[in-house]
Specification:
The protein starts with a helix and ends with a helix. 66% of the residues lie in helices and 9% in strands. It folds into three domains: 173 residues, ABC transporter transmembrane region fold (Up-down Bundle), CATH 1.20.1560; 114 residues; 151 residues, P-loop containing nucleotide triphosphate hydrolases (Rossmann fold). Strand 9 and strand 10 form a beta hairpin. It is an alpha/beta fold and 603 residues long. The protein is built from 20 helices and ten strands. The protein has a six-stranded mixed sheet, with helices on both faces. The protein has a four-stranded antiparallel sheet with strand order 2-1-4-5, with helices on one face. Bound molecules: adenosine-5'-triphosphate (ATP) and magnesium ion. The site of adenosine-5'-triphosphate (ATP) has 13 residues, from helix 11.
């Protein structure tokens, strides 16, 4: 996790009331439901206390005088109250639960939607884990406090008030003793819980570091083994687990102290109350039933007080979660439709780079593309070659509008592409990336990804055109074969072919290929080259290729060096020039021709 992200996630810099207010505004549709559940809670609390009140009456007016009729009378009353309590409790728990799940769903959906409006640069600089925890655990923590926290908190407050009311009704002097002790109890509970929460938060942080470290080690296991990093990595891992142990152990210790301390305060107060009730009994201010119910009221008071301190602690955490959630929602999309953006009818038009310069926001701020000018006719195939880091990927990223020019403009049919709606522009593009990405699911799902309404026949046709049909059919489940997470069950060449089939099915008007240095065998390479031919025919294409065969096919080759077009022309023109292309060609591409030749000659 980078420093900037750490700062963003851990420091509370907004006024917490402001965060709470904004989150409350977001969940405004649920206010009605929430109020209803709090109201039902109030009812439940009143009925709950009524039961203890009835117990007192039963002791004083039925059990002690031995009045059976009275006992029966109170018993029916008690049953009635219990039935109502059960129904009210049931309703309020269901309501709160529904509200909590609905709210969580809404917060997640709006974060997910917002996330997809953000430009690529946001994802290059924000770790995926950071985004994941904003959408999962942070939303849960917020909704838990707004629903169950409010539920338990209001229940506790109402309970405290009602119990104090009943206690005062029994004997106000004793109630006063209890009342003075409540703030002490809340304060002690709150202070200890704050420490527990702090330790738990630290433990969670260490836990996510541990998961990340494990994940990196497992995904990079080959590199780890090859470089013999096992010992060093184990040492790093142990340091993290050690830190996690300390944090968790400290939380456990505070937890162990909490209960005895609370119990001590409880018994201390109880002793005071008993001492007071002895005096009250003597002067006739209290009955035996009164003492009994007062003590049970007092004991009952402990639970809501502990609940209150717990909810307060959780609310504090939820505010931090709310702030992190809002920081995600506040990230503005820098690439978005202009207010007057219009749909584009076609990309089969002249494409023009007009003095395009570009720098990445978060790079070292040097220009990655410098004053690039280029005119491409519809249907033309442009190949981009050049040294690594020269700016080829950047150029096609701008064309795909994943980024927009810092200076200059890219025009389609004579109009700056920023005048068009992003979705209508990008939906006409077909892109095959350097490392093809497949989603877990079947091969069929993956080919269909860019055109959800495609029929099975269309999928097969696209696969045939891509030259992928044969190997797909050789799988036991054919098109329904699972590809695994990121296509892990397939070879790199197979993934390439499937992603080309996906692009063919989408039938794009502008095709972009950012091809990896070939990592496949010669037969697969031939298949890929053939399927790319199919894809490029009749479409404007920009291909960053490392294969000579693909490059030779291009109408024009651009040599990109240090963010500039160093040379431009056809294969033979550029060879004749004896410049940078010639150099690249003789260094790199000649090998390509020579290796098979050498193999043939057996050398
Ligand atoms: N997301 C990014 N943020 C900041 N700088 C970047 C980013 N992506 C690329 N760069 C920088 O921009 C420059 C051009 O990179 P680019 O990926 O366009 O090169 P390339 O020609 O595609 O190289 P290769 O042949 O290795 O794929 C490099 O110096 C690189 O460090
Ligand atoms: Mg690249």
């Amino acid at each position: 996790m980078s420093e900037t992200i750490k700062v963003r996630s851990d420091v509370v810099n907004e006024d917490s009331r402001n965060v709470l207010g904004r989150i409350l505004l977001i969940v405004r549709p649920y206010w009605g439901l929430l109020t209803l559940s709090v109201a039902l809670n109030l009812l439940a609390s009143v009925f709950d206390n009524l039961i203890t009140f009835l117990h007192q009456k039963i002791t004083d007016q039925a059990v002690i005088p031995g009045d059976i009729d009275m006992l029966w009378h109170f018993f029916t009353l008690l049953v009635g109250v219990i039935v109502i309590l059960i129904v009210v409790n049931l309703l309020s728990v269901i309501l709160t639960g529904k509200c909590s799940l609905d709210m969580e769903k809404a917060l997640r959906a709006s974060a997910f939607r917002h996330l997809h409006t953000l430009q690529l640069s946001y994802f290059s600089r924000t770790p995926a884990g950071w985004i994941l925890s904003r959408i999962t655990s942070d939303t849960t923590r917020i909704t838990d406090v707004l629903t169950w926290g409010l539920f338990d908190g209001s229940f506790a407050i109402i309970h405290v008030i009602v119990i104090l009311g009943f206690m005062t009704a029994v004997n106000w002097k004793l109630a006063l003793i209890a009342l003075t002790m409540i703030p002490v109890q809340v304060w002690v509970g709150w202070e200890i819980r704050k420490r527990i929460l702090r330790d738990q938060r630290e433990a969670r942080k260490q836990n996510s570091l541990m998961t990340a470290s494990l994940n990196e080690n497992l995904t990079g296991i080959r590199v780890v083994k090859a470089l013999r990093r096992e010992e060093r990595n184990l040492h790093d891992f142990e340091k993290i687990t050690e830190a996690r142990f300390h944090a968790s152990y400290s939380a456990t210790r505070w937890n162990a102290i909490l209960n005895p301390l609370i119990q001590f305060l409880l018994f201390f107060t109880l002793t005071l109350v008993l001492w007071g009730s002895k005096t009250q009994f003597k002067i006739g201010g209290l009955t035996i039933g009164g003492i009994k119910s007062f003590i049970s009221y007092f004991t009952m008071l402990q639970w809501p007080i502990q609940e209150l301190t717990r909810v307060l602690g959780e609310a504090q955490q939820a505010i931090a979660s709310g702030e992190r959630y809002l920081s995600l929602m506040d990230t503005e999309a820098t690439i978005a439709d202009r207010p007057d953006a219009k749909p584009i009818d076609s990309l089969k038009k002249e494409i023009e780079f007009r003095n395009v310069s570009f720098r990445y926001d978060d790079g070292d701020r040097t220009l990655v593309l410098k004053n690039v000018s280029l005119t491409v006719q519809p249907g033309e195939v442009i190949a981009l070659v050049g040294s690594t880091g020269g700016g080829k990927t950047t150029l096609v990223n701008l064309l795909a509008r994943f980024y927009e020019p810092t200076e200059g403009e890219i025009a389609v049919g004579g109009n700056d592409y920023r005048e068009f709606e992003l979705s209508s522009y990008q939906s006409r593009l077909g892109i095959v990336l350097q490392t093809p990405h497949l989603f877990s699911g079947t091969i069929r799902d993956n080919i269909r990804y860019g055109k959800l309404n495609a029929t099975d026949e269309e999928i097969v046709t696209a696969a045939v055109q891509a030259g992928a049909d044969d190997f797909i059919r050789s799988f036991p489940n054919g098109y329904d074969e699972q590809v695994g997470e990121d296509g892990a069950l397939l070879s790199v060449g197979q993934k390439q072919l499937i992603s080309i089939a996906r692009a063919i099915l989408k039938d794009p008007q502008l095709f972009i290929l950012d091809e990896a240095t070939s990592s496949v065998d010669t037969i697969t390479e031939k298949m890929i080259t053939a399927s790319l031919e199919t894809l490029m025919t009749g479409r404007t294409s920009f291909i960053i290729a490392h294969r000579l065969s693909t490059i030779k096919r291009a109408d024009r080759i651009l040599v990109i060096e240090n963010g500039e077009i160093a040379e431009s022309g056809t294969h033979s023109e550029l060879l004749r020039l004896r410049g940078r292309y010639y150099e690249l060609y003789s260094q790199q591409f000649r090998l390509e021709r020579e290796i098979p030749l050498m193999r043939q000659l057996g050398t």
